[in-house]
Each structure stands twice: as C-alpha cells, then as structure tokens.
Amino acid sequence: MHVLGRSRTLHSNRVLTALAASALLLGGKARAEVGLSPVSVIVFPGGFNWPIWAAQEHGDFARGGIEVRLSFTPSSAFQLTRLVEGDFDVAMTAVDNVVAYSEGQGEAPVSAKPDLFAFMGGDNGLLSLAVAPAVKNYQDLRNRTLSVDAMTTGYAFVLFDLLHRNGLEPGDYQVVKAGGVLARWEALKAGGQDGTMLLAPFDILARSAGFNILQEAIDVYGHYQGLVGATRRSWARANEAKLEAYIRGYLGGLAWLADPANKGAAIDLLRRNLPTLSPELAEQFYDELTGPRGFSPAARFDSEGMRTVLALRSRYGRPGMVLRDPAKYYDGRYYQRAVSR
User: Fold this and answer.
1) CA-to-CA distance for 104 and 106, rounded, in angstroms?
2) How many CB atoms lie within 10 A of CB 53?
3) pTM, whole model, 2 decimals?
C-alpha cells in the first residue's frame, strides 16, 4: 500500500510540475508589462485560487502596481520551506502551517528561523472527509488506509480529531503521506487510499465520481480558520506597499466573484484555468465557493476559528505545547491599511 501510494504521488507531482510550467508560461505575458513590481505567490492547485485568477484577469493587482506570479506546490512541506527560506514572497496556505513552522513543529527542517505570519483570511478550510464508495460510516474505516499531506501540519489534525470523535484511535487505521489536495484526490480516485480530507471544490468532484462525504469539518467545529495569506515579517516590513497592493487586488478579485452578475464570466474563467471541468460542475463550484460556506467575506481573519486551530495543535502537535494566542500568528495592520485606502 505504501509503495503504491508513493508511485501515484510521483505521478501527481509530475502533473503539478506541468501545471507549474503552464503558470510560468502564462506569467510570461505579465512580465512584458512595464512598471509592475513582481510578487511571487506559491499556492496549491485548485479552484480556491479563483480570486487570484480574477484579480489577474481584471487588473486588480496591476492597478496596485504589482504583477502576481503564481507557482504551484506539490506539498505543504515544499511550500513552507520555500517560503521560510525566501524563495517566494507570499503563500496561500493553511494557517496551521504558519503555526507549525513558527513553533518548530513543521514537517520539514528549514535553514532559516521562521518569521511567518498571516496577514489576511481566506476560508474556513472548506474541508470534508471523502471516502471510497464502499465506506459508509466511520467504523468502515477500521483497518483501512487514509492519506494526509503531512503528518504534523495542515489538515491532518482535523482528520485525526474527526476519527477520534467517532471512536477510531491511532492503530485502528493506517496513515500515509500523499502530498497536496490534488495528489490526494488522484490517489483516492485511483484506489491508492480509502479516505482523505478534501478541500472544496474537490468534494464536488468526489461526489460526482461516486465517492462518499462522511462529514464536513465546519459542521463539527462551527469556526475554523483554514486558508490564509502568509508571508515573512521581514519581507512585509521591507515591502509594505506591495503587500497592501496584493491584499487590495485579492479583495478586488473576491468582490468580482461574489457579484451574481459575473457568474457566467467567472465560470468561464474557472474553466480556462481548469479546462477538464464540465460546465455543470463549474456551476456547482461557483455556488459552493461564493456561498455562505465558501470564501470568507472580504477575506476576513476568523479569530475564533484560529482558536480551534490552536486547540487542535495543542492536542495533537509534537513536541507538545499549549497554544492559545491567535495574535501571535496574525498581524492585521497590513489588511487594515489596505482596505482603508
């Protein structure tokens, strides 16, 4: 099972490499524009990048004097180590990753001391536990294999907690690392694992392919801070105008998506970035991500949701520590300045 999972992860990583190459080619046009300052942003592939694509498409970043160059990551360990070490300016990532690397609990070693922080919110994680068609309830997961991006960061703790709440403890199931959400979905679809945490809109793909959704995380926690914009404090201090322009541009893209008058154009934009997506599924994606459980309104940071993240990390993180203060990992000054101008 482990060998099979690694093989399929390698295949998915080749897919991600091709996606990253495509993103760089698309970025070539933007680099021809004169007078724009580059901001390198590393993201996971998926429809949750919709606000960024919209802001690029409609000039929201360019109006702030910046050019956003997107790169795709195969895993959180790759994303966070490269961010910490200065290879990228900004990451759209799970806030738990920011906490983990800040506290020395990251999945991978880094050569620089992390000085990461979140500067805006993004969503509530959009998390659901997707399982193979044969799995009908939690007890059906006993002695089966589940996948995570990393054992010690991201959404793995949500998975472990949902299993614990439903009577399954470590040893009742196997866990393998399969990479980011795209890689995990590919492995689940191919039968490499029996369950994984998916982010919307991959849950719609799973349902349409006959997989079951056992539970949505937000139904359990009520509040959960998922995706955030994150960067290094040192980069933010040296690039305040660029960071504020990024926030304003992202919010512009988000506002454009939220306007029902733009639904058709937004779906066209999504399908240009995800060309294998059918019109029907694209419309479902739009309704989910612009609905009350989708993107956070105005990308606001959810402090109560952050306390949920810290409580889970206090319970499952290693080495063990008690974490209680959301303000240690979030600085809202750049957001406030961005929206006040």
Assistant:
1) 6
2) 21
3) 0.88
pLDDT tens-digit map of 148-158: 999 998 799 99
Strand order in the sheet with 90-94: 66-72, 37-43, 90-94, 227-232, 116-120
Structure confidence by residue, pLDDT tens digits, 34-56: 799 999 999 999 999 999 999 99
* Domain architecture of the chain: domains with CATH: 2-125+225-305+318-340 (3.40.190.10), 127-221 (3.40.190.10)
Nearest to 19 by CA among 42, 43, 45: 45
| Rounded distance between C-alpha atoms, residue 6 and residue 322, angstroms | 34
Query: Percent of the chain having pLDDT more than 70?
Result: 90
pLDDT digits (tens, 9 = 90+) for 182-212: 999 999 999 999 999 999 889 999 999 999 9
**Are 121 and 301 within 8 A, CB to CB?**
yes
